[in-house]
Amino acid sequence: MGKAQGRNTFRTIVALTAAAVIPLGTAHAAEKVKVGLMLPYTGTYAALGNAITNGFKQYVAEQGGTLGGREVQYFVVDDESDPSKATENASKLVKRDDVDVLVGTVHSGVALAMAKVARDTKTLMIIPNAGADELTGPLCAPNVFRSSFTNWQPAYGMGKVAAERGHKNIVTLTWKYAAGEQAVNGFKEAFEKAGGKVAKELYLPFPNVEFQPYLTEIANLKHDAVFVFFAGGGAAKFVKDYDAAGLKKSIPLYGSGFLTDGTLEAMGGAGEGLLTTLHYADGLTNAKDKAFRSAYEAQYKMPPDVYAVQGYDAAQMLRAGLDAAKGPELDQAAMIKAMEAAKIDSPRGAFTLSKAHNPVQDIYLREAAGNQNKFVSVAERALEDPARGCRMK
Ligand code: BEZ
Known about the structure:
Blueprint: H1 3-19, E1 32-39, H2 46-62, E2 66-67, E3 70-78, H3 86-96, E4 101-103, H4 108-121, E5 124-127, E6 144-146, H5 152-164, E7 169-175, H6 178-193, E8 197-204, H7 212-221, E9 225-229, H8 232-244, H9 247-250, E10 253-256, H10 264-267, E11 275-278, H11 287-300, H12 306-324, H13 332-341, E12 352-353, E13 359-369, E14 372-383
Parallel strand pairs: 1-3, 1-4, 4-5, 5-6, 7-8, 7-9, 9-10, 10-11
Antiparallel strand pairs: 2-3, 11-13, 12-13, 13-14
Helix pairs in contact: 2-12, 3-4, 5-6, 12-13
Bound molecules: benzoic acid (BEZ).
Protein backbone atom coordinates (compact mmCIF):
# COMPACT_ATOMS: atom_id res chain seq x y z
CA MET A 1 0.00 0.00 0.00
CA GLY A 2 1.41 3.43 -0.93
CA LYS A 3 1.93 6.07 1.73
CA ALA A 4 -0.98 8.20 0.60
CA GLN A 5 -3.32 5.24 0.76
CA GLY A 6 -2.13 4.17 4.21
CA ARG A 7 -2.17 7.65 5.63
CA ASN A 8 -5.56 8.38 4.16
CA THR A 9 -7.32 5.58 6.00
CA PHE A 10 -8.05 8.03 8.83
CA ARG A 11 -9.24 10.69 6.44
CA THR A 12 -11.42 8.11 4.68
CA ILE A 13 -13.18 7.29 7.95
CA VAL A 14 -13.76 11.00 8.59
CA ALA A 15 -15.06 11.45 5.06
CA LEU A 16 -17.43 8.49 5.32
CA THR A 17 -18.81 9.86 8.59
CA ALA A 18 -19.18 13.27 6.98
CA ALA A 19 -20.96 11.75 3.98
CA ALA A 20 -23.80 10.74 6.28
CA VAL A 21 -24.67 14.39 6.94
CA ILE A 22 -23.53 16.07 3.70
CA PRO A 23 -26.03 15.92 0.84
CA LEU A 24 -25.18 13.41 -1.89
CA GLY A 25 -22.83 14.84 -4.52
CA THR A 26 -20.99 17.27 -2.26
CA ALA A 27 -19.08 14.72 -0.14
CA HIS A 28 -16.20 14.69 -2.61
CA ALA A 29 -15.85 18.48 -2.52
CA ALA A 30 -15.38 18.27 1.26
CA GLU A 31 -12.13 16.35 0.69
CA LYS A 32 -8.83 18.20 0.88
CA VAL A 33 -5.48 17.75 -0.73
CA LYS A 34 -2.58 18.93 1.43
CA VAL A 35 0.13 20.57 -0.65
CA GLY A 36 3.54 21.23 0.89
CA LEU A 37 5.23 24.14 -0.90
CA MET A 38 8.94 23.99 -0.09
CA LEU A 39 10.56 26.88 -1.95
CA PRO A 40 13.04 29.73 -1.41
CA TYR A 41 11.39 32.96 -0.26
CA THR A 42 14.63 34.60 0.86
CA GLY A 43 18.10 34.84 -0.70
CA THR A 44 19.27 34.96 -4.32
CA TYR A 45 16.45 32.64 -5.52
CA ALA A 46 13.60 34.36 -3.59
CA ALA A 47 11.95 35.79 -6.72
CA LEU A 48 11.98 32.32 -8.30
CA GLY A 49 10.19 30.76 -5.33
CA ASN A 50 7.58 33.53 -5.36
CA ALA A 51 6.94 33.19 -9.10
CA ILE A 52 6.47 29.40 -8.76
CA THR A 53 4.03 29.95 -5.90
CA ASN A 54 2.12 32.55 -7.92
CA GLY A 55 1.87 30.25 -10.94
CA PHE A 56 0.74 27.27 -8.85
CA LYS A 57 -1.92 29.30 -7.05
CA GLN A 58 -3.09 30.88 -10.29
CA TYR A 59 -3.95 27.49 -11.75
CA VAL A 60 -5.70 26.40 -8.54
CA ALA A 61 -7.68 29.67 -8.47
CA GLU A 62 -8.72 29.09 -12.10
CA GLN A 63 -10.20 25.76 -10.96
CA GLY A 64 -12.17 27.48 -8.20
CA GLY A 65 -9.70 26.61 -5.44
CA THR A 66 -9.98 22.86 -5.95
CA LEU A 67 -8.03 20.23 -7.89
CA GLY A 68 -9.78 17.02 -8.88
CA GLY A 69 -12.71 18.10 -6.69
CA ARG A 70 -10.51 18.51 -3.62
CA GLU A 71 -9.99 21.76 -1.76
CA VAL A 72 -6.30 22.69 -1.81
CA GLN A 73 -4.73 23.32 1.57
CA TYR A 74 -1.20 24.82 1.58
CA PHE A 75 1.68 24.26 3.97
CA VAL A 76 4.58 26.58 3.15
CA VAL A 77 8.27 26.43 4.09
CA ASP A 78 11.07 28.83 3.10
CA ASP A 79 13.95 26.49 2.24
CA GLU A 80 16.41 29.42 1.88
CA SER A 81 18.16 27.47 -0.93
CA ASP A 82 20.12 25.84 1.89
CA PRO A 83 20.82 22.12 1.33
CA SER A 84 21.89 21.66 4.97
CA LYS A 85 18.31 22.44 6.13
CA ALA A 86 16.52 20.51 3.38
CA THR A 87 16.01 17.12 5.06
CA GLU A 88 14.57 18.70 8.20
CA ASN A 89 12.31 21.05 6.23
CA ALA A 90 10.94 18.30 3.99
CA SER A 91 10.49 15.91 6.93
CA LYS A 92 8.44 18.50 8.80
CA LEU A 93 6.07 18.86 5.87
CA VAL A 94 5.69 15.10 5.54
CA LYS A 95 5.63 14.02 9.17
CA ARG A 96 4.25 17.01 11.08
CA ASP A 97 1.91 18.47 8.43
CA ASP A 98 1.12 15.12 6.79
CA VAL A 99 1.11 16.63 3.28
CA ASP A 100 -0.12 14.53 0.34
CA VAL A 101 2.33 16.07 -2.10
CA LEU A 102 5.62 17.92 -1.82
CA VAL A 103 6.04 20.70 -4.38
CA GLY A 104 9.63 21.95 -4.53
CA THR A 105 12.09 23.29 -5.08
CA VAL A 106 14.37 25.69 -6.96
CA HIS A 107 17.92 24.74 -5.89
CA SER A 108 19.23 21.38 -7.15
CA GLY A 109 21.11 20.57 -3.93
CA VAL A 110 18.01 21.19 -1.82
CA ALA A 111 15.86 19.15 -4.23
CA LEU A 112 18.23 16.16 -4.02
CA ALA A 113 17.78 16.02 -0.22
CA MET A 114 14.06 16.67 -0.48
CA ALA A 115 13.59 13.85 -3.00
CA LYS A 116 15.30 11.41 -0.65
CA VAL A 117 12.64 12.23 1.97
CA ALA A 118 9.96 11.78 -0.72
CA ARG A 119 11.40 8.42 -1.81
CA ASP A 120 11.86 7.14 1.76
CA THR A 121 8.33 8.12 2.83
CA LYS A 122 6.67 7.36 -0.55
CA THR A 123 5.31 10.90 -0.71
CA LEU A 124 4.35 12.21 -4.13
CA MET A 125 6.75 14.97 -5.22
CA ILE A 126 6.54 17.49 -8.07
CA ILE A 127 9.68 19.49 -8.80
CA PRO A 128 8.72 22.90 -10.22
CA ASN A 129 12.27 24.00 -11.04
CA ALA A 130 15.42 22.27 -9.71
CA GLY A 131 17.13 20.68 -12.69
CA ALA A 132 19.40 18.14 -10.93
CA ASP A 133 19.91 15.56 -13.68
CA GLU A 134 20.00 12.71 -11.14
CA LEU A 135 16.36 13.22 -10.10
CA THR A 136 15.13 12.02 -13.45
CA GLY A 137 18.29 9.98 -14.03
CA PRO A 138 19.90 7.46 -11.65
CA LEU A 139 17.66 8.60 -8.75
CA CYS A 140 14.40 8.53 -10.73
CA ALA A 141 11.42 7.14 -8.80
CA PRO A 142 7.76 6.39 -9.51
CA ASN A 143 6.58 9.08 -7.07
CA VAL A 144 8.93 11.85 -8.26
CA PHE A 145 7.82 14.10 -11.17
CA ARG A 146 9.14 17.29 -12.68
CA SER A 147 7.29 20.19 -14.36
CA SER A 148 10.46 22.05 -15.31
CA PHE A 149 13.65 20.75 -17.03
CA THR A 150 16.90 18.94 -16.38
CA ASN A 151 20.01 21.10 -16.09
CA TRP A 152 21.20 19.34 -19.23
CA GLN A 153 18.25 20.40 -21.44
CA PRO A 154 18.47 24.20 -21.97
CA ALA A 155 22.28 24.19 -21.85
CA TYR A 156 22.47 21.46 -24.50
CA GLY A 157 20.37 23.72 -26.74
CA MET A 158 22.85 26.56 -26.28
CA GLY A 159 25.85 24.34 -27.12
CA LYS A 160 24.38 23.74 -30.54
CA VAL A 161 23.56 27.44 -31.07
CA ALA A 162 27.07 28.59 -30.04
CA ALA A 163 28.67 26.16 -32.51
CA GLU A 164 26.31 27.30 -35.29
CA ARG A 165 27.38 30.88 -34.58
CA GLY A 166 30.93 29.89 -35.45
CA HIS A 167 32.55 29.83 -32.00
CA LYS A 168 35.37 27.36 -31.52
CA ASN A 169 36.93 28.06 -28.12
CA ILE A 170 34.77 28.84 -25.13
CA VAL A 171 35.26 29.52 -21.43
CA THR A 172 32.48 28.65 -18.99
CA LEU A 173 31.73 30.24 -15.62
CA THR A 174 29.16 29.19 -13.02
CA TRP A 175 28.45 28.46 -9.38
CA LYS A 176 30.01 25.21 -8.20
CA TYR A 177 27.02 23.03 -7.45
CA ALA A 178 24.90 20.53 -9.38
CA ALA A 179 22.98 23.05 -11.50
CA GLY A 180 26.08 24.91 -12.69
CA GLU A 181 28.19 21.81 -13.27
CA GLN A 182 25.43 19.96 -15.12
CA ALA A 183 24.60 23.00 -17.27
CA VAL A 184 28.26 23.18 -18.28
CA ASN A 185 28.21 19.46 -19.08
CA GLY A 186 25.09 19.80 -21.24
CA PHE A 187 26.54 22.79 -23.09
CA LYS A 188 29.86 21.03 -23.58
CA GLU A 189 28.24 17.85 -24.90
CA ALA A 190 26.44 19.67 -27.74
CA PHE A 191 29.21 22.21 -28.40
CA GLU A 192 31.99 19.64 -28.65
CA LYS A 193 29.83 17.27 -30.71
CA ALA A 194 29.53 20.15 -33.20
CA GLY A 195 33.32 20.64 -33.30
CA GLY A 196 33.86 23.31 -30.61
CA LYS A 197 36.06 23.09 -27.52
CA VAL A 198 35.36 24.15 -23.94
CA ALA A 199 38.89 25.35 -23.24
CA LYS A 200 38.45 26.40 -19.61
CA GLU A 201 35.84 25.86 -16.88
CA LEU A 202 35.71 28.46 -14.09
CA TYR A 203 33.70 28.00 -10.88
CA LEU A 204 32.86 30.04 -7.79
CA PRO A 205 30.93 28.90 -4.71
CA PHE A 206 27.13 29.35 -4.59
CA PRO A 207 25.78 32.03 -4.04
CA ASN A 208 28.96 34.13 -4.23
CA VAL A 209 28.68 37.25 -6.45
CA GLU A 210 32.26 38.54 -6.24
CA PHE A 211 32.81 38.12 -9.99
CA GLN A 212 35.74 40.50 -10.50
CA PRO A 213 38.66 37.99 -10.41
CA TYR A 214 36.81 35.76 -12.90
CA LEU A 215 36.13 38.67 -15.23
CA THR A 216 39.82 39.55 -15.18
CA GLU A 217 40.71 35.95 -16.01
CA ILE A 218 38.14 35.84 -18.85
CA ALA A 219 39.58 39.06 -20.30
CA ASN A 220 43.10 37.60 -20.18
CA LEU A 221 42.10 34.25 -21.71
CA LYS A 222 40.75 35.96 -24.85
CA HIS A 223 38.54 33.03 -25.90
CA ASP A 224 35.80 33.42 -28.58
CA ALA A 225 32.89 33.52 -26.16
CA VAL A 226 31.65 32.77 -22.64
CA PHE A 227 28.87 30.42 -21.50
CA VAL A 228 27.43 30.85 -18.00
CA PHE A 229 24.78 29.43 -15.70
CA PHE A 230 23.49 31.98 -13.19
CA ALA A 231 19.94 32.73 -12.04
CA GLY A 232 18.00 35.12 -9.84
CA GLY A 233 19.73 38.02 -8.10
CA GLY A 234 23.20 36.62 -8.87
CA ALA A 235 22.45 36.56 -12.60
CA ALA A 236 21.46 40.25 -12.63
CA LYS A 237 24.66 41.18 -10.79
CA PHE A 238 26.82 39.07 -13.10
CA VAL A 239 25.50 40.60 -16.32
CA LYS A 240 25.86 44.13 -14.93
CA ASP A 241 29.47 43.39 -13.89
CA TYR A 242 30.27 41.76 -17.26
CA ASP A 243 28.98 44.85 -19.06
CA ALA A 244 30.71 47.31 -16.69
CA ALA A 245 34.02 45.48 -17.24
CA GLY A 246 33.65 46.24 -20.97
CA LEU A 247 33.51 42.55 -21.86
CA LYS A 248 30.04 42.49 -23.43
CA LYS A 249 31.34 44.37 -26.47
CA SER A 250 34.40 42.19 -26.99
CA ILE A 251 33.50 38.61 -25.85
CA PRO A 252 29.97 37.37 -26.63
CA LEU A 253 28.13 36.08 -23.56
CA TYR A 254 25.71 33.13 -23.75
CA GLY A 255 23.72 31.35 -21.09
CA SER A 256 20.89 28.98 -20.40
CA GLY A 257 17.87 31.27 -20.17
CA PHE A 258 17.83 31.47 -16.36
CA LEU A 259 20.42 34.21 -16.84
CA THR A 260 17.82 36.63 -18.21
CA ASP A 261 14.42 35.22 -17.13
CA GLY A 262 12.88 37.50 -14.51
CA THR A 263 16.16 39.45 -14.21
CA LEU A 264 16.25 41.87 -17.17
CA GLU A 265 14.66 44.76 -15.32
CA ALA A 266 17.22 44.49 -12.50
CA MET A 267 20.01 44.55 -15.10
CA GLY A 268 18.93 48.05 -16.14
CA GLY A 269 19.74 47.55 -19.82
CA ALA A 270 23.01 45.60 -19.37
CA GLY A 271 21.29 42.45 -20.66
CA GLU A 272 20.12 44.00 -23.94
CA GLY A 273 20.73 41.69 -26.91
CA LEU A 274 21.83 38.64 -24.90
CA LEU A 275 21.05 35.31 -26.53
CA THR A 276 19.90 32.49 -24.27
CA THR A 277 18.10 29.15 -24.63
CA LEU A 278 15.16 27.98 -22.53
CA HIS A 279 11.85 26.11 -22.65
CA TYR A 280 9.91 29.39 -22.43
CA ALA A 281 10.09 32.74 -24.25
CA ASP A 282 8.22 36.00 -24.57
CA GLY A 283 6.20 36.23 -27.76
CA LEU A 284 5.02 32.63 -28.09
CA THR A 285 1.82 32.52 -30.09
CA ASN A 286 -0.13 29.65 -28.53
CA ALA A 287 -3.56 30.46 -27.07
CA LYS A 288 -2.76 28.98 -23.66
CA ASP A 289 0.19 31.35 -23.20
CA LYS A 290 -1.91 34.38 -24.14
CA ALA A 291 -4.59 33.51 -21.58
CA PHE A 292 -2.01 32.59 -18.93
CA ARG A 293 -0.07 35.83 -19.34
CA SER A 294 -3.04 38.17 -19.22
CA ALA A 295 -4.45 36.43 -16.12
CA TYR A 296 -1.03 36.45 -14.40
CA GLU A 297 -0.43 40.13 -15.15
CA ALA A 298 -3.92 41.07 -13.96
CA GLN A 299 -3.45 39.15 -10.70
CA TYR A 300 0.19 39.88 -9.81
CA LYS A 301 0.80 43.22 -11.63
CA MET A 302 3.93 41.91 -13.34
CA PRO A 303 4.71 39.71 -16.33
CA PRO A 304 5.18 35.98 -15.75
CA ASP A 305 8.51 34.24 -16.29
CA VAL A 306 9.58 30.62 -16.75
CA TYR A 307 9.31 29.95 -13.00
CA ALA A 308 5.66 31.05 -12.95
CA VAL A 309 5.00 28.70 -15.89
CA GLN A 310 6.65 25.79 -14.09
CA GLY A 311 4.53 26.45 -10.96
CA TYR A 312 1.38 26.64 -13.06
CA ASP A 313 2.24 23.36 -14.78
CA ALA A 314 3.07 21.63 -11.47
CA ALA A 315 -0.53 22.36 -10.44
CA GLN A 316 -1.79 21.08 -13.81
CA MET A 317 0.14 17.83 -13.30
CA LEU A 318 -1.26 17.41 -9.81
CA ARG A 319 -4.75 17.99 -11.14
CA ALA A 320 -4.23 15.26 -13.76
CA GLY A 321 -3.34 12.89 -10.93
CA LEU A 322 -6.18 13.92 -8.65
CA ASP A 323 -8.76 13.60 -11.42
CA ALA A 324 -7.85 9.90 -11.51
CA ALA A 325 -7.99 9.45 -7.72
CA LYS A 326 -11.73 8.99 -7.57
CA GLY A 327 -13.41 8.59 -4.20
CA PRO A 328 -12.32 9.93 -0.84
CA GLU A 329 -9.07 7.95 -0.69
CA LEU A 330 -6.00 9.33 -2.51
CA ASP A 331 -4.98 6.37 -4.64
CA GLN A 332 -1.33 7.17 -5.32
CA ALA A 333 -0.87 4.39 -7.89
CA ALA A 334 -3.79 5.75 -9.95
CA MET A 335 -2.42 9.27 -9.62
CA ILE A 336 1.02 8.24 -10.86
CA LYS A 337 -0.45 6.40 -13.83
CA ALA A 338 -2.55 9.42 -14.82
CA MET A 339 0.32 11.87 -14.38
CA GLU A 340 2.60 9.69 -16.51
CA ALA A 341 0.03 9.69 -19.32
CA ALA A 342 -0.94 13.36 -19.08
CA LYS A 343 -0.49 15.85 -21.89
CA ILE A 344 0.06 19.18 -20.18
CA ASP A 345 -1.40 22.20 -21.99
CA SER A 346 1.43 24.47 -20.89
CA PRO A 347 1.99 28.15 -21.74
CA ARG A 348 5.40 27.00 -23.06
CA GLY A 349 3.59 24.72 -25.55
CA ALA A 350 1.98 21.36 -24.77
CA PHE A 351 4.30 18.69 -23.42
CA THR A 352 4.29 15.08 -22.28
CA LEU A 353 6.56 13.41 -19.75
CA SER A 354 9.41 11.05 -20.51
CA LYS A 355 9.57 7.60 -18.89
CA ALA A 356 11.78 9.27 -16.27
CA HIS A 357 8.95 11.82 -15.49
CA ASN A 358 10.68 14.86 -17.04
CA PRO A 359 9.10 17.16 -19.69
CA VAL A 360 9.90 16.41 -23.32
CA GLN A 361 9.88 19.96 -24.66
CA ASP A 362 11.02 22.47 -27.22
CA ILE A 363 14.05 24.60 -26.34
CA TYR A 364 13.77 28.14 -27.67
CA LEU A 365 16.49 30.55 -28.68
CA ARG A 366 15.60 33.98 -27.27
CA GLU A 367 17.06 37.46 -27.54
CA ALA A 368 16.79 40.03 -24.73
CA ALA A 369 15.00 43.20 -25.86
CA GLY A 370 13.90 45.66 -23.19
CA ASN A 371 12.49 43.54 -20.38
CA GLN A 372 11.57 40.64 -22.65
CA ASN A 373 13.28 37.45 -23.79
CA LYS A 374 11.90 37.51 -27.32
CA PHE A 375 11.37 34.24 -29.16
CA VAL A 376 13.87 33.90 -32.03
CA SER A 377 13.61 30.27 -33.14
CA VAL A 378 13.27 26.69 -31.92
CA ALA A 379 16.82 25.56 -31.06
CA GLU A 380 15.81 21.96 -30.28
CA ARG A 381 12.39 20.46 -30.96
CA ALA A 382 10.90 18.03 -28.40
CA LEU A 383 14.21 17.65 -26.60
CA GLU A 384 14.18 14.67 -24.24
CA ASP A 385 16.76 14.40 -21.48
CA PRO A 386 18.77 11.19 -21.99
CA ALA A 387 17.86 10.13 -18.39
CA ARG A 388 21.10 8.18 -18.12
CA GLY A 389 20.91 5.58 -15.37
CA CYS A 390 17.15 5.83 -14.76
CA ARG A 391 15.70 2.41 -13.88
CA MET A 392 12.10 3.02 -12.85
CA LYS A 393 11.12 0.37 -10.29
C1 BEZ B 1 18.92 24.63 -9.90
O1 BEZ B 1 19.55 24.73 -8.83
O2 BEZ B 1 18.64 23.53 -10.39
C2 BEZ B 1 18.46 25.87 -10.60
C3 BEZ B 1 18.31 27.05 -9.91
C4 BEZ B 1 17.87 28.17 -10.57
C5 BEZ B 1 17.55 28.12 -11.91
C6 BEZ B 1 17.72 26.94 -12.61
C7 BEZ B 1 18.18 25.80 -11.96
